[in-house]
């Protein structure tokens, strides 16, 4: 019993000591699952340049990023969209741009769709590819789950409400969206352009559609002409300083440009 | 009975430690349920205040962004997928168990058992990925969109097959040997021995196993999420996409806040209650079997 007590006491003291020491050198990032992989890579590089600093990156969606940064639960929030007017108590720092593109199965003869046609397909007015000059196949509409910022951006751009959309399949992340479309010749979906281009290069049978006359490519997003693009931000409370500021400056610097490109995003 | 009367000090200390640890496990379970209730509470209360406490069970649609939280389609979908999986897996599982117990040669039985154990050990996300990249495109060629109730129940039935087979095998194996010996002595045919003597005798064990498999099918998340299509609608056909409660939580929890979040915890609570009910059923059936065993 005494040995047990001593061990317990010792481990408590050790943990307390570790915690108090770590407090100054620790950063926590939470939020968007789109930003998280990039932030993890940036964090690794930052840690290797600043020995003793530990950075913890957790996902949970843009809403969590906003919430945690506001409540002080995290030092930095990751948000894959611009800040809303109600979120002006936070400051946002752009670290990359990402675009959302419509994808079809590669075998589909349709090479372009107007915005009206896209809306009609998504609200179920057009249900067959023949109606837009395509193959003799019914259309499978692939939509995103509620709460995803990709969905919010898509709805906002086409001025739709989610209850108007007649989806046949609802997917979670980009990979699931791409696998669903590549396995179904009649499907239409929308995903992050970077991920889609990457998969297209690997031979996955999908193709990206141009949007409002602009090709859906990483270059078009970089030039700023592509209509369905979004900023990837790090957000913090306006009073933050010290290590947080250092990390943000690092994440915006040329030192991480190759990391941004490796993730198929566009460096700002 | 014996444990309490033992006055050996070492044994007494062991029993104290064991009591504390098992008490801790029970407390942990109680805390999980308590956590679910507290997280779901704001939503339950607000829908109660709005006089829409039954709104959960109506089909006004599931559009959290627009404040609509109808769960009925998902409850029905969960039940339909689970029932479908059992209907497919139970006959196959029973047939496999009978084969293992009465027909297979020793080394074939060993290999078969090994395969079942491997099947039981495959992570559900692998089943999901297989379903998404092989099974769903196959169904798409036949009846688009492919991601459907059918795909979900097929993948699930594959996942619960080992559970059903292994529990049925052990139920058949635990039937008293004199029953079989008696039936042999009567000169009954193999088919009659199995169908009319062994199966009825092992019935409660088999039912218990099937109920456990049902609980697993009801709680399965990743695989179903990947192949079911996830459209919130009341299931009307095998080829219609559906969303089950577990997939709903996995799809939206990461992005949910406030009422949306609480409503997801409510669906978690609902699932817990359903699974609880099933395990209670399995427990009752098993107890019945034990008692019956003592009498026989």
Automatic annotation (TrEMBL), chain A:
Record key words, sorted: Signal
Q: Which domain of life is it from?
A: Bacteria
The cross-references to Gene3D superfamilies, in alphabetical order and at most eight, read: Periplasmic binding protein-like II
The record ties this protein, via SUPFAM superfamilies, to: Periplasmic binding protein-like II
InterPro entries, per the entry: PBP_domain, Phosphate_ABC_transporter
Signal peptide (from-to): 1-22
Spell out the protein name for this chain: ABC transporter substrate-binding protein
UniProtKB/TrEMBL annotation, chain B:
GO terms for MF = phosphate transmembrane transporter activity
Cellular-component GO terms for this entry: plasma membrane
Per the UniProt entry, what is one GO biological process? phosphate ion transport
The record's InterPro entries line, in alphabetical order, gives: MetI-like, MetI-like_sf, Phosphate_PstC, Phosphate_Transport_Permease
Membrane protein topology class: Multi-pass membrane protein
Family per UniProt?
A: Belongs to the binding-protein-dependent transport system permease family. CysTW subfamily.
What name appears for this protein in its UniProt entry?
A: Phosphate transport system permease protein
Can you name the source organism? Nitrosococcus oceani C-27
Q: Lineage of this protein's species?
A: Bacteria, Pseudomonadati, Pseudomonadota, Gammaproteobacteria, Chromatiales
């Amino acid at each position: 019993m005494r040995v047990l007590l001593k061990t317990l006491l010792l481990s408590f003291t050790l943990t307390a000591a570790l915690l108090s020491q770590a407090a100054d050198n620790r950063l926590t990032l939470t939020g968007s699952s789109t930003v998280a992989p990039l932030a993890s890579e940036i964090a690794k590089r930052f840690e290797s340049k600043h020995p003793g600093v530990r950075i913890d990156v957790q996902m949970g969606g843009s809403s969590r990023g906003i919430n945690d940064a506001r409540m002080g639960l995290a030092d930095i929030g990751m948000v894959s969209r611009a800040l809303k007017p109600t979120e002006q108590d936070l400051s946002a720092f752009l670290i990359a741009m990402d675009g959302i593109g419509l994808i079809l199965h590669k075998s589909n003869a349709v090479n372009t769709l107007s915005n009206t046609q896209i809306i009609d397909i998504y609200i179920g007015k057009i249900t067959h590819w023949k109606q837009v000059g395509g193959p003799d196949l019914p259309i499978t509409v692939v939509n995103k789950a509620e709460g995803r910022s990709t969905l919010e951006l898509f709805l906002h751009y086409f001025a739709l409400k989610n209850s108007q959309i007649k989806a046949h399949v609802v997917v979670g992340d980009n990979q699931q969206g791409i696998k669903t479309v590549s396995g179904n010749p009649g499907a239409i979906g929308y995903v992050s352009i970077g991920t889609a281009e990457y998969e297209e290069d690997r031979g996955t049978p999908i193709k990206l559609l141009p949007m409002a006359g602009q090709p859906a490519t990483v270059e078009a997003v970089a030039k700023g002409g592509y209509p369905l693009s979004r900023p990837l931000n790090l957000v913090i409370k306006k009073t933050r300083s010290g290590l947080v500021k250092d990390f943000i400056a690092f994440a915006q610097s040329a030192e991480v440009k190759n990391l941004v490109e490796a993730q198929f995003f566009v460096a700002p | 009975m014996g444990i309490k009367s033992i006055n050996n000090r070492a044994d007494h200390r062991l029993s104290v430690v064991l009591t504390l640890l098992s008490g801790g496990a029970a407390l942990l379970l109680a805390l999980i349920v308590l956590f679910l209730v507290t997280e779901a509470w704001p939503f339950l209360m607000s829908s109660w205040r709005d006089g829409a406490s039954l709104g959960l069970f109506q089909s006004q649609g599931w559009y959290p962004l627009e404040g609509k939280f109808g769960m009925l389609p998902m409850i029905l979908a969960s039940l339909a997928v689970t029932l479908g999986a059992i209907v497919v897996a139970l006959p196959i599982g029973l047939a496999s168990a009978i084969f293992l117990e009465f027909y297979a040669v020793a080394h074939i039985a060993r290999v078969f058992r090994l395969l079942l154990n491997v099947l039981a050990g495959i992570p559900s996300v692998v089943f999901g990925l297989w379903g998404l990249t092989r099974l769903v495109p196959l169904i798409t060629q036949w009846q688009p969109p492919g991601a459907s109730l059918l795909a979900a129940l097929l993948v699930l039935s594959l996942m619960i097959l080992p559970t059903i087979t292994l529990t049925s095998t052990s139920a058949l194996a635990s039937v008293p040997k004199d029953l079989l010996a008696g039936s042999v002595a009567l000169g009954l045919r193999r088919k009659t021995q199995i169908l009319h003597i062994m199966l009825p005798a092992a019935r409660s064990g088999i039912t218990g196993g099937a109920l456990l498999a049902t609980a697993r099918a009801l709680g399965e998340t990743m695989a179903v999420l990947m192949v079911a299509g996830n459209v919130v609608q009341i299931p009307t056909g095998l080829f219609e996409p559906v969303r089950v409660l577990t997939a709903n939580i996995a799809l939206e929890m990461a992005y949910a806040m406030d009422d949306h979040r609480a409503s997801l915890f409510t669906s978690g609570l609902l699932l817990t209650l359903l699974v609880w009910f099933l395990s209670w059923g399995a427990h009752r059936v098993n107890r019945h079997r034990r008692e019956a065993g003592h009498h026989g």
